[in-house]
Amino acid sequence: MRVNLKRYFLYLCRWQLSTPILAIALIWLSSLNKWVATIIANFIGGLIFFWVDRFVFTSKSLAAQWEVRDNIKCSDCGKIARGYRLVKTPNYDKTSDKAPKFRCEECSQKKAEELRKRGIIV
Ligand SMILES: [Zn+2]
Description:
The protein is an alpha+beta fold. Helix content is about 50%, strand content about 15%.
């Protein structure tokens, strides 16, 4: 199984966001029975985090996987620099590219703009 680290990290951050919401709800509901208060707090959390989770798991903007490598020769300008290459999006897959092309930051931004216009990245 391949894990999209960006999604995974956002998901872990989202769990941290639920901490203060749960705490505030439990303080606010402290006069109630603990079980009832927890059920209501989780209900409030569910109302909010359904939308956050849906974004985390379905957002196309999080779907692009990039590979970063140091000291590459840019395939466009020839500069030796840190290099970037797009590996995978929902409609683009270069995971088994035998001769992957890396680009310097500047050229990779130009290339990304071109891919954005073609709808390969959003
Ligand atoms: Zn370049």
